[in-house]
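Internal tracking record. Fields below are filled automatically when a chain is submitted to the structure queue. Please do not edit lines marked as system-generated. If the sequence contains nonstandard residues, flag them in the REMARKS field before resubmitting.
Queue: standard
Priority: normal
Entity type: single polypeptide chain
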Amino acid sequence: MEIKELTKAEEQIMQVLWDIGKGFVKDLIEILPEPKPAYNTVSTIIRILETKGFADHLALGNSHQYFPVITREQYRSFATDKLLHNYFGNSVEKMFSFFVKKEKIDLEEADEILKLIGNFKKNKS
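SYSTEM-GENERATED OUTPUT FOLLOWS
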């Protein structure tokens, strides 16, 4: 299944849905930051998320309980691949260098990343 890009509003709703696992529109609104969006706004966004294949619902009486279909990890992988492809020419080295230059990664984190790479190499051989 092809994952589509989320708008900022859709991603905000999905973040809440991923956090709670399942919930009704009122549950989502309760968790969203102030100013709280209108019920109809959240309801419309969640239906768009269903159309895009990100969420589904279970009908309980007159209410719908929504749950994620795409995991946070699946979307993270999609978003990271898109970032890597569109802004760094598919070069992890360029992306890593960018984060180091912007001081988004400190030396301790860089050491941890190098350890992870070393462990990955050991496990592959």
